[in-house]
User: Fold this.
Amino acid sequence: MPIHQPQQRSSGSSERPGVPQAEAALVEHYPRLVRLAYLVLPPALGRHRRVLAAHAAVQRALPGAGTAPEAPAPARVPAQTRGASAGPAPDDGVTSAYAWMRLRVLRTALAHERRPRWWPGRLPAPAALRPSLPAVWGLRLFPRAGGAAELALDQELSAVPAAVRAAFALRLLEELDEPEAQSLLARADARDPANAVRAARRLGTGDRAGAGALLRSAEFDPCVLQTRPSDLLRRRHRMRVVAGVAALCVVAGGVVALAQEGSAVRLPDAGSTPAPAPALDPAALLRTAAQEWADTSRVDFTAWPARGDRTDDRALLGRALRTWGRTPKGTAVSTTPGALSVPPAQPPRLLYAGEVDGAAVVLFHDGGVRVVRYAEPLSGTGAPALDFARTDDADVTTGAAVVVSRSGDRARFLLAPWIAESTTRDLLRPDTPARALEVGADGVTAAVPRPSPDGGCDSWPVMQLRSSERIVEKHAFLVTDLGDLAPVHLTFTPKPGGGAPARQPREATGGPALLSWARTACSLRALGGTGVRAVNNWDFAEQRLPEGGAPAQWVCTRADTWQGPGRVLVQFLAPDPSTTAPATVVGDQRDTALCSRFGQHVLGGTHWKAPSGRWYVLAAGSRAVDRIQATGAVRASASGTTLAVRAPRDASVELKARLREGGSLTAVR
Assistant:
């Protein structure tokens, strides 16, 4: 049902709207008000509590009999696209009521992040402690997950104060100009409204229209939700605790009664600290037996044993768990896209505890979803660090290593117990043999070079690992460090032979695979820190170049992330005497199934200059393409999987392909 556009009205009335008008405004604009509250509320609440708090803030905004009068804010409601059936715009009373409700919602949401100076820093603000409805028991609620762009914006918003988030939402969602947003923030008791409005200008990477579209996406919609069960074991434990407390209250009541009758019974001193929650108790950590990896069909992080010389250091493990559960101020926290920094819901699995490069490091695995790294300096007063990475559905290759330490241009990894041999090699030197990599008794490697962080691409180090024959015979594979805790698995898919079926990705350790990666490795830099789990190079076409030229290769480089969405780079490999001449990226598409088993057809195109100086438009498609057509500045078509046509250097050309079995493709841009 479309949201009607209220007429604009500015009122200086000192009377609040009546309850019927306020309720009408709430019902009509409920999703918009809840989204506004959700964006302003602190991300530290977690998505479940944040959803409930947003709905509570809106529902509590209805005026009661004792609500103090106040002048409403200027009544500006964002414009909506109205169809023929949209009906008349609401009257001025409803418009004024909406603005008044918006002010109350905004004030309530902002109050969650304000604490009195005397209030304990780890406790929520007093406004967040009030009992409220709705309440949910036994379920966890989450908005639908978005893509990488939504996640990046959410992380950007979580790094700024509530007033800045509010200003950003008012400017983009409510379409208020800066003076109006500043005035409304001032009325909502925001801190330093002018500075908040200025800071909001810097959010959204400068693309205001794009940022506004992201704010309207499902990622930030607390009215369209997914559900998951809460932690059943912890819930059962709480019920037992409640029952135990009730029993203690009964006993204490009897003891007090005896004391009042003059009995000499004394209550025990209550000076001892209560035991920590099970998920944060070092004694409750899960530990896998040393050889279980060889006797299980689930070869992932759940099969890793606890290693390192400090696995029995209860003090270190306790600090790591407490920091994870109640992150103190000053802790450096990093998360890869798709990973949550929330406390563990149940005792995690211990993977490693030891000393590496001047720091005490602890690695946990949390219920099949995350790997968490805790590090504290061995000397000095430096703050601890927490790193979170998503690792669900890891396997022999994507669960083969975890970063334990990074220092400058080098990193150390903890290898999986099933890794029987480890070497390093440089993708930009495909003819150079791999070099042995030393691994300690605790599974930690010697320092491994990392891809250059300064933007150069003179080398691209990778690890070549071989699985134990107890897992799979003669299985070697490549992984590389792209900045996340888990290194990225590299694979290769050769182009199909004549009449052969489509081929599947294979390990990138053979000659053709290494030659392909030698020319495309530098494109991996664009994927750094984006939560990638695996990257595949697919040689989808070969094209004989015009004017008697040598054949060129077309490659689709697909990056799959831990959270699901993929990104593809279409690359053109022109003939070159150097085996490491970088390819040209001619297409880049995000959040797509292209070049995967769910998107097996692709079309790419580019401009190319022949040795004669003439310019051409080239195009190539995957094996199911039987005709390519160019329109625009030039018009041409060709049967088969390739096309080459003379065209000016900057000619604007649209490329489309027809598939043999029906359907069409457009070129990846």
Q: What stands out?
A: The mean pLDDT is 82.
